[in-house]
Amino acid sequence: MAGFLGRLRPVVSARPVAHQVFALQVVIVLFLALAAAASLVLQARADGEKEARDRALAVARTFSHAPGVRSALAAEDPSAVLQPRAEAARRAAGVDFIVVMTPQGVRHTHPNPAQIGRHYIGTIGPAAQGGTVRETVTGTLGPSTRAVVPVTEADGRVVGLVSAGITLERVSETANHQLPLLLSATGVALGLSVLGTGLVSRRLRQQTHGLEPAEMTRMYEHHDAVLHAVREGVLIVDDDGRVALANDEARRLLDLPADAEGRTPSAAGVDPDLAGLLAEGRTATDEVYVARGRLLAVSQRPTDRDGGPCGSVVTLRDTTELRSLAGRADAARQRLRLLYDAGLRIGSRLDVEYTSQELADFAVPRFADYVAVDLAEPVLRGEEPAHSDPGLRRVAFRGVRDDVPFLPLGELVRFSPATPQGAGFRTGRSVLEPDMAAFAGWQEPDPGRALEVVAAGVHSLIAVPLRARGVVLGVATFWRSRQPEPFDQDDVALGEELVARAAVSIDNARRYTREHAMAAALQRSLLPRALPEQNALDVARRYLPALAGRGGVGGDWFDVIPLPGARVGLVVGDVVGHGLHAAATMGRLRTAVHNFSTLDLPPDELLWHLDELVTRIDQDESGDGEVAPVTGATCLYVVYDPSTRWCTLARAGHLQPALLQPDGRAGYIDVPAGPPLGLGGLPFESAALRLPPGSSLVLYTDGLVEDRHRDIDEGLELLRRALADSAGGPEETCDRVLEALLPERPHDDVALLVARTRTLGDDRTAAWDVPCDPSAVGAVRAEAARTLAAWGLDDESFVTELIVSELVTNAVRHASPPIRLRLIRDRALICEVSDGSSTSPHLRRAATTDEGGRGLFLVAQFADRWGTRYTADGKVIWTEQPLPEGRRADGG
C-alpha cells in the first residue's frame, strides 16, 4: 500500500488542475467500484439463502400434501413406503434432504438410512401445533436452512411432520458461481468510469488551457473590469478607514469625487449616517440609509477573515423604486389575503340573514369601519326582487362604535335614485361617495340622521350592489371614519370582489330558502293537519323537519286512520332522502296506505301491497336518472281494536315500536322484521298482542334515536328511559321524549306518535250468536231492538232492524256457521255480522220480475257506510249509521 501511494503522489501533485482532478476521480471511482462489488457479492449470498429457505418451505409443503403421505404415516412400516418417495422427491426438487417424522420428531425417512428411527435435530414444536418452522441449524448433514410443516387430517389433527432443507455449503457454491460474473462486471464498470474520467479531465484541461493554479489566481486578480461593470456599488475601506476602491456604481450612488480613493468617507462627501457605518467597520446586512435623496440598502463585511487584509468591503443597492413596488405588492398581497379569508368565513350556512351578517362582521374593521347589508324584501322569502320597487330591508350591520345613528336593523327603507344605495340597486354598478360632508344626495331619506352621522366622523362611503347570476339582490354599504384618507377606486374594486363572493352565498341561501319553502308547503299539505275523531286511542304526535343543510324537509310521515268496527290504524314511515322528491314520495305512500286501509287488510297484507306499489313506481321511473328511487322506504302499520284490546303490528324495515305499560314499565314490542319497501323477495309477518287498558304505543322514525354522535342502540336505550320517566298523558310523553333525545340541530326528520289505548265498555257493545236457522232471524232482530232502546236510540231502531234482518238472513242462507251479530255504539252505530264463509256479497239491482236481490241494496241505501273485511275464520260484513250529536259515545 505504501508503494502504491508513493507512485500515486507524483500524479496527485502534478501542477495542472486537470491532472489533479483526474487523479482524485480515479481514486473515488476505484473505491466505489470495490464497494459495489463487495455489496453485490453479499447480496448474491443473501439472495441464495433466501431462495434456499423458500425452496425448502415449498418442497416441505408440497410433500406434506402429496397423495398417500397421510395413509403411509398410518401404515405399520411408514419408512418402507415413504423412504423411496422422499429420496425421489429430494433429487427432483434439488434439496439436500426430505425428512418425514412423527409429531414427536422420530424420523421415518433420511438421506442416510442409518438416521431413520432417530430423533430429528431442530425445532418442531410450532409445526406439531399446526404451524410452520423455518430455521438454520447444524444437523447430521452439517449447517443447513430448513423448513418443518405439519401433515394434517381433514379435522386438523397433526399426524406427522415433513422437513426439507438445503445445506449452506450448497448455497455458498451457488453464490461462488456468480462471483466471476460479478467481478467481470465490476472490472468493466471500472474501466468505463476511468475512461469517462479521462474524457472529463481532458475537457477540463482544454477549458483551462493547461494553466497552473498560480496562473489562474493571477488571472482572477484582474478584477477591475468586473467591478466597474456590476450594477451594485462596491466600496473597499482599508484599516485606516479610507476608501481603497470604489466602482462606478458606488461613485454614482454616493456622488463621490474623482479623487475619493485615499480619503475618508466623510471627506469624500458621504452622508454622515452612512459615513459613520463605514468608519465603524461593523458587520451590517441590508441596512437602509438615505444618501443623496436615495434609499440605499447597505451591507458591510470585514476582509480580514482567513488571513486577508484588514478593512471592510461594502455593497450598495438602490432600493428607492424597489421600496415603492414592495409597498404596492404588500397592499396587493393584503387584499388577496382579505378575499381568501372572505371565501372561508362567509357563506357557512344556507341562511340569507346569517350570511349577510357574516359579510358585515368580516369587513369590519379589515376593510371598513361600518358595514350595512340591505336586501330586497322578496329575497328574504326566497324570491327574486323586482327592480321597480327599491324597498330594501336592513338585515345586517356592524360597526366599530355603537353610538353612530345609522338606520337600525329590520327597518324597511325606500332609497331614492339620488342615494348611492338606490342608484346601485337600479343600475347594478357601485357608487363611490368620497366626501360625505358635501351631502350630494346620499343623505336621503333621513337628512337629520345624516347630519349626526357626519358629525360622528364618518366621511366617505361605497355602495356596492349584491349581484349574483345577473340578479341584484340588495346593496352592501361601507363607511370609513377612523382612517383619514377617503375611499378610492382601488377600494371600490376590492369592495366589489368582496361583495361578489358574498352575493353568491346569499343567492345560494335565497334559492335554498325558496326550495325549502316549497318543500315545506308541499309537506304540510301532505301530512295530516288534524287527527281524525275516534274513541279507540288518545293520540299525540310531533313532527320536526331536519334543519338547514339537510334539505329542510324529508320523507318522514305518520297517520291515524279510523277503521270499521271502532278500530284505528296507526302508520309511521320514512322515505330515503330530503327535499321535494322525498316529500312528494311520502305523499304518494300515505295516499296508498289510505287506499289500502279502505280494503280493511291485515297489516302484513297491507305492507305487501305497498311493497308491490313501490316496486312498480321504481320500475316506471327507472329511466329518469334525476329521480331518486323509492326503494328503501320503511313503514310500520298498527291496528288496534278497542273492543278486544288486541293490537296487530307489521313492519317493513322500520324500527320496533315501544310500549309504555300502565305501571310505568317501558320496552319494545318484538315485531318480525320485514325488508324495506321495494326490495321484495321476503314475506311480511305480523305480531299480535293484547294490551292492558291505558297502555301507550310509541311509534317513531330513526331520526329520533339515531345520531352521528351516538350509536342507535344507545338511542333506543335513551328512548326507553325517557318513556319510563315520563308522566302524564301522550302530550307530556312526547315533550319528555323530544327533550331527552333530540339535539339542538337534528340532522334528520323526526316523526313521533304516542297513542294511549282505550277500551269499549260492555255498555257500548252487544253481541249474539245466531243459529244457522232462518227462524232465528226474528229473535235476533228483537234483541237488537231492545238493546237500542236501552241505549236510548229508539229513533234508529227501524233502520237497524232492517239492516240486521237483511245481513243475518243472507248469512243464514248463503254462509256457513258460526254466525255472530255485534252492535257497537261509538261515534256511529256499528252493526257487524260475521260468519265462517270467505265469499263476499255483491251489490246489484234487482229487475222488476226478480223476487230477491234487493236486501243489500236497501242496506247500502240506509247505512252511511258498509263493507266487508276478512278474518282468519271467515269474514265480517259491517255497516255504520250516523248518530245525533247527543247520542254519540264520548271518548272516556
Automatic annotation (TrEMBL):
The keyword Iron does not apply. Keywords: ATP-binding, Cell membrane, Hydrolase, Kinase, Membrane, Nucleotide-binding, Phosphoprotein, Transferase, Transmembrane, Transmembrane helix, Two-component regulatory system. SUPFAM superfamilies: ATPase domain of HSP90 chaperone/DNA topoisomerase II/histidine kinase, GAF domain-like, PP2C-like, PYP-like sensor domain (PAS domain), Sensory domain-like. Residues 221-286 form the PAS domain. This is SpoIIE family protein phosphatase/ATP-binding protein. Residues 374-516 form the GAF domain. It comes from the Bacteria. It is found in: Cell membrane. The keyword Ribosomal protein does not apply. It is a multi-pass membrane protein.
